[in-house]
Amino acid sequence: MARPNKTLVINLIKKNKTMNMKKKNLFALTMATCLCIPAMAQKKTDLFSLSGNVNGADSVIIYYQNAAGKIINISKPIVNKKFLISGKINSPCSASVMFKNKGEEISQQQFWDRRKEIYLEAAKMTISGEAMNLNTLKITGSQSQRELEELTHKTDVVRKEMEPSSNALMQEKDHEKASEIRDQLEPYNDRIKKITYDFFIGHPNSYVTVNTMRFYTSRMKLDSVKTVYNNFNANLKKTAEVKDIAKEIARIEKGSPGNMATNFTTTDINGKPLSLSDFKGKYVIIDFWASWCVPCRKGNPHLIKVFDTYKDKGLDIIGISDDDRNHSAWKKAVEQDQIGIWHHILRGLDMDLRMKNLPNPADISDKYGISSLPTKILIDPSGKIIGRYGDTNGGSDEDLDKKLAAIFQ
Length: 409
Fold this sequence. Notes:
By secondary structure, the chain is α+β, with helices and mostly antiparallel strands. The protein has helices at residues 6-11, 26-33, 108-114, 143-171, 175-202, 207-213, 222-231, 240-254, 294-310, 327-336, 351-355, 364-367, 397-407, and strands at 3-4, 46-55, 59-65, 71-77, 82-89, 93-100, 116-120, 124-130, 138-140, 265-267, 273-275, 283-289, 315-321, 343-346, 372-373, 375-379, 385-389. The protein contains 13 helices and 17 strands. Helix 7 packs antiparallel against helix 8.
């Protein structure tokens, strides 16, 4: 099964609690969960107020993004079970609320367990219930919150069913066993994806749809992503969030059959220059993989067989590894899997640029809309993409085999 690459994992941190959270700091988690959508047609900011009546906590913390795009962290004492928080936003806004007691240090796991996602709106909102029991908390005054609860009510049923496997995944240290557990989780994830897609279609202009789509543009088929995007109204299409969806659509299309493959130039594993344009006149498989990707490594014996079968008939392979920050692991995997028989280069990802949301022109995966591994792109002698395999928008290894057999018959 295709696995999200490391960049996607960072972007999906909010929705995938099965990740190992130990290496992520609390503020990074917060930033991944508290986004407002700039309302392009709206000139002024609006005031929200959130009043609380809760038991079992001494203070409340709320994280959200204000009208200027700055992450806000507000802490208020709870006196006689009550508190009031207000602030300025320019559209319905996804936020995180968490309660704590005096002298309490909150670990990263506790943050996940005790944070409550809510939607702030320019209205008087209330929250009530038991502070340390998220299931008892009731929020009123926000239409977006009601829509969020409609979606989560349906997906939580599935998440409850998959909880034993999810917990086992969090505890598993062995990569291969963890990969097997992820495969077991796929049917549940597919059900959640279907429920979520139906919500998108039923709520085309919901801010919940816009925010949640951030995590699904690379997990749904391109036609489905386009359908959701086309259903947004004109004002939402002007927002940064929806523009990002449009950019992702364009990236995937660039790496899809029918388009000319984008050229790239870099150095290979031996320090020699390599350009895709050097391979004109050949059929080329671009194999996007990584040393840490278990399905990629398991698929290498099959790829060796493909290479041995067709290398003398005009086929070449370029392996593009997502190991930019661990060159030794990359080289070791190439040697262990005995795949040095074809060309190998790195993806070219600069994580510092990515985290700052700046362009990364050397990132080859970005040029082809790659968001999960393994993914293979098949290019014909003219440089046109004629196949995509492995990810949500691609076929299977069996489909690749049939395509190559037809080409080289």
